[in-house]
Amino acid sequence: MQENPYSLFSQRPPYNGCIFNYKFKLFLNLFKRMTTLNETHNPQLQSWVESANIPGNGFPIQNLPFASFRKAGSQESFRPGVAIGDQIVDLAALANLNLFEGKAQEALNACRGTHLNELMALGQEYWSALRLALSRALRSGSDLQASIQPLLVPQADAEYTTAAKIGDYTDFYISVHHATAVGKQFRPDNPLLPNYKWIPIGYHGRASSIGVSGQQFHRPVGQLRPATEGGKPELSPCKRLDYELELGVFIGSGNELGHRIKIEDAPKHIFGLCILNDWSARDLQAWEYQPLGPFLAKNFASTISPWVVTTEALAPFQTAFSHPAEDPQPLEYLSSEENSKAGAYDLKLDVLISTEKSRSSNQQPAKLASSNFKDAYWTIAQMVTHHTVNGCNLQPGDLLGSGTLSGPNPEEAGSLLEMSEGGKKPIELPWGEKRTFLEDGDEIIIKGVCRKEGYPDISLGSVSGTVLKALF
Ligand code: CA
Questions:
Q1: 35 to each of 30, 245, 410, 450, how far by Cα in Å?
Q2: Mean pLDDT of 330-338
Q3: Does residue 3 surpass a pLDDT of 70?
């Protein structure tokens, strides 16, 4: 724990006291115990990039999320960038100007490749130093405006790839509401298996089929369960295609094989969060999942948002975490004072759908559900700690999925499996169509934002993906 929220940044004079007003000091005091707030979180900060100052734009100077981008339709190399308002700062170009000092410039020098893995590997002190330097450079009145302005690329002109080269991908199952709702469909009297309240359950997924927002994929083909017991399974395009509303966690610095990450140390290994849609073929899953778990039902496509919001940017939205008093309390290795005080995040998620019909009649996408990450049963720190408790090594750029983030109420269901009660209850869309599962041409959009009184909205942007006809 750090007593002084500014002490991370000792390579520069602390801060210019005159930019802080009384309100911000109150704000800092409120969160002092979380110890993660610093001058970059001052809600009063404004940028010389005007679009960043528009209330509700989602990418204000307090956010500064990272992506890998290039000019759309070009043959340029993808390279790291930081969002500010509706613009992107080209970090590879900024690195070449050598404007920053110390760890901030070293962090920038790690942004000359195609992805963010090198920056992620450097560790939290470097990410924080870069964030502080960028925050100062992009503030209204900065001396660096004239040097940085020519490096801006409008987001409207950019295309993206995944922020990191993802080495390994693990998907968890941390929403007890999702686990209970799905479990009920199979075991009405005993929806949760006995391990659920003790272990952050997960499985190893596949990294090669993870794409960035805008991904289009063909409806998967696979074996469907025989119609009668003992019968012959059918090879068919999936008939019960679903989405899963999830968050993705990018690992920053990893751990050596054989060495675990203690829960107290877990936060500093986490680079940031993105939005994740874990497309799921429910009928393939139902036939293949026993005894080894998900396989082809999950590995044909997963889509993530381009922007990764750092945990430092999300610090003002950390919130207390606990298990209900009547539930088993986590084992000691999954507990810490910090995790209980501020292990969860107040982060709102919305899922929307558009279809061929709605797009051809220019209708807006319809909202299917909303939920909040704060309702999860396990925290990110617990996911990281449990993943490494056996000595498994996480590496920079590894992606952890949260699992479907459903809330306690039916309108907070994070998948069609839950919303349609296993396909029994069709969902009516505003333009007259109905869905139990996804049809060809359907597009799913998930948005994520952190919102609180007196602080600018911190957006994770959005992720969209579209189902194409099966190749069969
Ligand atoms: Ca999942």
A1: 10, 30, 36, 19
A2: 98
A3: no
Whether 34 shows a pLDDT value over 80: the answer reads: no
Tokens for 71, please give them. Answer: 């000019």
| pTM for this entry | 0.93
CA of 17 to the centre of ligand 1 (A): 46
Q: Is the dihedral angle over the CA atoms 121, 124, 127, 130 positive or is it negative? A: negative
Please name the residue ranges forming H helices in 149-264. Answer: 176-186
Backbone angles phi, psi at 459, to 5 degrees: -95, 145
Cα Rg for the chain, rounded, in angstroms?
22
Phi-psi region of 24 (alpha: psi -120 to 50; beta: other; left: phi over 0): alpha
DSSP 195: T
pLDDT in tens, 186-230: 888 989 999 999 999 999 999 999 999 999 999 999 999 999 999
Distance from C-alpha of 163 to C-alpha of 78, rounded to nearest angstrom: 10
Q: How many residues does the chain have?
A: 472
| Tokens matching residue 298 | 């999950």
Q: Which residue, 126, 80, 131, is CA-closest to 107?
A: 126
Integer angstrom CA distances of residue 310 from 124, 127, 164, 471: 10, 9, 13, 38
Catalytic residue list: 178
Q: Between these two residues, 131 and 25, which has the higher pLDDT value?
A: 131
Contact between 460 and 314 (Cβ < 8 Å) = no
> What residues are paired with 90 via a beta bridge?
81
* Separation of CA 287 and ligand 1 centre (Å): 17
Question: β-strand 399-401 against 366-372: which pairing, if any?
Answer: unpaired
Please tell me the distance between residue 202's alpha carbon and the centre of ligand 1 in angstroms: 9
Q: Where are the alpha helices (DSSP H) in 315-461?
A: 337-342, 356-360, 380-388, 416-419
Average pLDDT over residues 455-463: 98
Distance 281 CA to ligand 1 centre (A): 11
Q: How far is the CA of 40 from the centre of ligand 1 (A)?
A: 34
**Residues with Cβ within 5 Å of ion ligand 1?**
171, 244, 278
Q: Looking at residue 220, what DSSP letter applies? A: P
Backbone phi and psi for residue 405, each to the nearest 5 degrees, phi listed first: -95, 80
Helix (H, G, I), strand (E, B) or coil at 101: coil
d(CA 311, CA 124): 10
Q: 174 with 371: CB under 8 angstroms?
A: no
